[in-house]
Amino acid sequence: MSVKQRPNGKWRARYRDETGREYARHFATKREAVAWEAEKISSVARGTHMAPAGGRKTLREYAETTYLPRLEINRNTERNYKSAIDKCPFVDLPLNRITRQHVQDWIVTLRTGPVPLKSSTIRMYTGKIGAILNAATIDRLIPFNPYKGVKLPKIQKEPWDTQIPLVKHVKSMLERSHEPYTSMLASASFAGLRSGEILGLQPIDLRGPSTIRVSRQVSISRVMLPPTAPKYGSVRDATAPADLIRLLRKQAERVGAGPTDWIFPGVKPGCHMSYPSFYDAMREATKDWPEQMRHPHALRHFYASALIAAKCDVVTVSKSLGHANPSMTLDVYSHLWETSVDDVVNAASELMNLALPPAG
Q1: What's the rounded Cα separation, in Å, for the pair 35 and 18?
Q2: Is 331 exposed, middle or buried (0-12, 13-18, 19+ CB in 10 A)?
Q3: Residue 270 domain-assigned?
Q4: pLDDT at 51 over 90
Q5: Which residues span the domain enclosing 44?
Q6: pLDDT-derived band at 156, boundaries 50, 70, 90
Q7: CA angle (143 as vertex; 137, 145 as ends), nearest 5
Q8: pLDDT, tens digit, for every residue of 291-328?
Q9: How buried is residue 124: exposed, middle or buried, by Cβ count under 10 Å (0-12/13-18/19+)?
């Protein structure tokens, strides 16, 4: 016990945290000092100790000086974090004063305010703040995450089947488009490339008669930023039809692209085409499509569904799409692998005949 009385009559209690840093506090009575010291020593032993001044940092200060600098994220994700921070009404409160009610009230405001947001957008903004608060609990600045337990709006999603174009849709789209957009739309439809990966293509990426090396992506925002590695670090060799490779080579020749120039250049010299140009071209070529299909990502759904229909396994589809892991692929497309009862019966019958031949 390190409680001692000071010359002024106060009782001084002290303890050290797990890093060896010492904390002290003075009390009017010995009982208060002993109780405080015992509780703090016990919290250090349990691993639940909170730095006394840690929670005084504001959410904004902690996010900008501690949380964001140690993340390895792409520019779009960083921009989403900063947008969430700017929209958060309690961002300038000390961490230890933020309550679950603050978070819940914010969710209600985002859903019912003058400009109501979609459920998915609300979840994105509040989820980013929740991640920051969770990190603050891990850093032992606050005892619990006030984001946990809040009621989030449900996302009403269209069934994935309604977002997958049919062959007739893709055929009409390509017939209505013109270069360079035909090559771009074909790259999404028949190689499953993301928009940023298409915009980042260079002649050096066309490897042999049926391979596209996907090693970079560019920002799909209106701001021109340097290219980065593909999403989820999915550098890969995408297998593509020979006709698509020829289409891309012709496009590269058309614009006089050198090995490391953009196959789809923009208006400004040295810049790639902007995403809005690509998006607008697709919208123009798909005027008669159902609205939920009229975005470039639907073409990746088309490509994935074709692979699955061709009996490709989930690992193959996942690698072809550049997903982080096969479980992500299953989350989106598991229903497309549904096997009919007849298929199961036939497979089981064949197996039984091999293992247990019919009695003669």
Answers
A1: 19
A2: exposed
A3: yes
A4: no
A5: 4-49
A6: low
A7: 55
A8: 889 999 999 999 999 999 888 999 999 999 999 899 99
A9: middle
Residue with tokens 């947001």: 117
In angstroms, the CA 53 to CA 142 distance is 10
Are 211 and 201 in contact by the 8 Å Cβ rule? The answer is no
**Within this chain, do residues 333 and 196 fall inside the same structural domain, yes or no?**
yes
261: number of Cβ within 10 Å: 15
- Judged by DSSP in three states, 338 sits in coil
Task: Tell me: do 67 and 209 sit in the same domain.
Answer: no
Look at residue 358 in the predicted model and tell me its pLDDT.
65
| Whether 77 and 192 share a structural domain | no
List residues bridging with 11 in a β-sheet: 5, 27
Q: Which pLDDT score, from 0 to 100, does residue 196 have?
A: 93
Please, which residues bridge with residue 25 across strands? 13
Question: Is the sign of the CA dihedral 303, 315, 213, 243 positive or negative?
Answer: negative
Helices (H), the chain: 30-46, 59-62, 75-87, 100-112, 119-138, 167-176, 181-191, 195-199, 242-254, 275-285, 297-309, 314-321, 326-333, 341-355
Q: For residue range 243-292, what is the model confidence (pLDDT) as tens digits? A: 999 999 999 999 999 999 999 999 888 899 999 999 999 999 999 999 88
